[in-house]
Structures are given as C-alpha cells and as structure tokens.
UniProtKB/TrEMBL annotation:
This is UNC93-like protein MFSD11. It is a multi-pass membrane protein. One of its GO terms (cellular component) is membrane. InterPro entries: Ion_channel_UNC-93, MFS_trans_sf, UNC-93-like_regulator. Gene3D superfamilies: MFS general substrate transporter like domains. Pfam families: UNC-93. The chain crosses the membrane at residues 7-26, 46-65, 77-95, 101-125, 137-160, 172-190. Keywords: Membrane, Transmembrane, Transmembrane helix. It comes from Austrofundulus limnaeus. It comes from the Eukaryota.
Amino acid sequence: MGPEGKKLLNIVILGLGFMFMFTAFQTCGNIEQTIIKSFNSSEFHGSGYTSMAIIYGVFSASNLMAPSVVTVIGPQLSMFVSGLIYSGYIAMFIHPLTWSFYTASVLVGVAAAVLWTAQGNVLAINSTDNTIGRNSGIFWSLLQFSLFFGNLYIYCAWHGHVHITDKDRRTVFISLTVISLVGCFLFFLIRKPDPEPLSGSEVTESLLQTESTEGSTSSSSQSGLCSQALDAFVKACKMFVTKEMLLLSISIGYTGLELTFY
C-alpha cells in the first residue's frame, strides 16, 4: 500500500473508531435522563442534565491543556485513554451511584478535550492541502452514522416498553460499553504515515540534527518533553487571541449555544 493509501486507511479507521465510541456515548446521553427517572433507588439522586452541564463545562476549560497532553503522550495513546474514560462513564450506568456519576462526568469532560485535540492532530498529519477536505468529509460522515446506529439499537431494544427495568438497563449499557471499547481498540490500528521525501539539502540537515542529538541523555529527554508541553500550551494561548480565532469564536459560541438545546 502506498503512502496515500495508508493515510486514507488511517482516516477511515479514525472515523470508525469514533463511530463506535459515539454510537455508545451519544446513545447514552440521549437516554440517560429517561433511565434515571426509571431507576428506583434511594441511593441515587443524579440528574442527566447536570451531568451534561458538568461534562461540557469541564470540556471547555480543559481545551487549553489538551495540546500539552497530546504532545507528551502522543495522539494515539491520548485517544485510547480518553476512550477508556468514555467507556467507564457508560459502564457506570450498569450500577449507578451519585458520586461515581458526577466524578465520571468531570473525567469525561477532561477526556473529551484530549480526545478531540488528538483527533485533529491525526487528521492533520494524515492529510495534505489537497486531501484535507476529502478526509474531513470521510471522518464526519462516519461519525454521524453513530446517531443512526445508536438510536436504531435503542428503538429495537426498547420498542413497546412502557417502563425500563433494571434488567433492560443493564443489558443496554453492557452492550454500549462493549461497543465503546471496540472503538477504543480500533485506534491501535492507526499507523504512522510515511515521512515526505526530502530533498538533498534537507537530508543533509536531517543527518546533522541526528548526529547532534545522539549524545542526549534521558534527563534531557524528559526536560524536552516538558518544554514541548509548555510550548504547546503557549501556542494554544497565542492562537486563541489571533484575529481569525476571535472572529471565529462568535460563530463557535453561537453554535455551542444552539447545541445546548439539541
């Protein structure tokens, strides 16, 4: 398979991973308030609306630190760990407790920021100026299928049910947890794209850089990771105050407000 074919395959795997994960998570978000109302327990006093508010509030606040996390541990591992947290949130509904419900909501907010930052990184490194539009379309098409499959599953599983029993709840959320985990492990199938061919002068420069770094120690490597994380944070802050981002923030803010009522 050629370099372009490998990049396209990476985009398809990325889209499928998100499709599985969000088939589970968006379905969970759509039905959780209904589940909570049907859940008869004196130990649980959670609210699905409060949970969603916590998730997206923490999500917003965590976006500034997310680039640093992705820089340090890499986009692939970032998506996998974030996916595990999403799966944990869904699994919590198998036996819900108030404290675990809200704790998981906070963790998912942080995980969401890291997940979507890593997704953007993977999409960018597997695209060129000529393919970014196509690749974005493929990814978002696959992602939006999650709404279809998730709601279809709930319709088939609960069709004709007037009351959601504990058995119905456990069966659905065990299934959704497994579906989410499948998406997590799909991320390990993403392969690093082949580097672009270098010109003669670039090859020479690359060799010189390699020779100059051969003597570096593990301590300098650790300090290098810290400086990369700090650099990613500073760049994110600087990008936020650029003219383009400030103008975009108006439409982004409106979109977020509209999605609040989605």
